[in-house]
Amino acid sequence: MKKILVFSLALILIYVGVFFVPGRVERLSLMPDKITEAWRFLTYSFVHLDIMHLIENIAGLTLIALIAVELRIALGDFSSVYLSSGFLSVIPLWFMMSFTALGASNAIFGGFGLISQETRKFGVKVWIIILIATLLIFMKSFFAIGTGEFSSAIKQSLSHFFGFMFGICFFFLISKIRSISMNKKRSVLRGDYR
Amino acid sequence: MKKSSKKSPTGIKGLDKMLMGGVVSGRNTLVSGPCGSGKSTFAAHFLHSGIKDHGEKGMYVTLEETKEKFYNDMAEFGMDLKAAEKKGDFVLVGGPIASLHGYMEKVNANVKNLIEEIEEVVKEKGVKRVVIDSINLLSMLSKDDDENRKTLAMIANSLSALGCTSLLISETKEGSMDLSRYGMEEFVVDGVIVLYLIREGSKFISGVTVRKMRGSNHDKEIRYYQITNKGIVVYPQESVFTNKMME
Ligand SMILES: Nc1ncnc2c1ncn2[C@@H]1O[C@H](COP(=O)(O)OP(=O)(O)OP(=O)(O)O)[C@@H](O)[C@H]1O
Ligand SMILES: [Mg+2]
Question: How far apart (Å, rounded) are the C-alpha atoms in residues A185 and B111?
């Protein structure tokens, strides 16, 4: 079986497992007034609010995993982008806007960021993908303008947008690092030996 | 009549006669021989003549000596490869295997990376003739037998895919009649030229033969050759056998 699918299945099992932890939201999500409980930084992205939230994210993860397999993305790229987006991308926003953060959606949007970059392999214009994704991410907030939902919707949109951009930047960074080390590996014979 | 394959002369006149023109262009030829038999000199003739007589840029991949040493040794035979390098017609890459190996460990490179690097240089400079000196040393850089086997096939394929005429140099054991050390190199190449040092009493007699040249006829005798101050000279009229008789 494809490694990315195994990785995703393992994550799904964790998500489902955590879903059955009693008082999971209270104990494991990232809350502004519980900042001293450091473990929350590691657990919040595995916790889901309710069954709909869980199902949505399982579906989202499955979707990006299947696309990643189709695009022949390496497991290392997929897992590092996914996990780092999940852990890190919401943090700046969380400090600025203070809200309870939980769930895997940022990781999933990070995954979409990675995918948007890898479509380049097939000659797709990346900026078009980024534009469409951004529009979709903010659509919910747009329709919530003027309603009581707006404040929570915009936080969600922004947080997803951060995840998406984080995925793009993180992947950009690792490919830069990789190309530097690749260049080193490719200039062995051309070295100066005396 | 069937059109025969295009030939690339090696620049060693007597040998080109044996080869009915030269080695097959765009293919790989194995040049094997024991230590000191003149393999590196052979390589220099091939590259030097490519540059001087045929306008074909050359690349020498060494795993045994430093640049300066090679340039000095070949200058002894009247081949100024340093000047060719300055003009951009020749490129020498590599160095002593110990230094290479040390650097590879440092940057975590493998033999595949080296092959990719060779490809890169060939494309960048428009190289037409390539010599790998030697594939024994190259395979010492492989991690295991499996990688080793793949390496040879990979380098042979990639060089001919790039349209290069190449010599793969292989050192055989002293006195051995084998064509190659691992007994498989000869299968991935299109031609095999063997240098022999045959002991006769208190001295060695040197002989060269063409063991195979796909798609071409060639001399099948072992012919006498010498290393002179002009480099390798092959006597296509004198087989080692008659030569022995004369002494
Ligand atoms: N000026 C010269 N005149 C005659 N013979 C020479 C001269 N210079 C070198 N030689 C001979 O050429 C030999 C070296 O040739 P060369 O380096 O091409 O051999 P090789 O097969 O590549 O050796 P190795 O196995 O060390 O790589 C010397 O051993 C020497 O016998
Ligand atoms: Mg040599």
Answer: 10
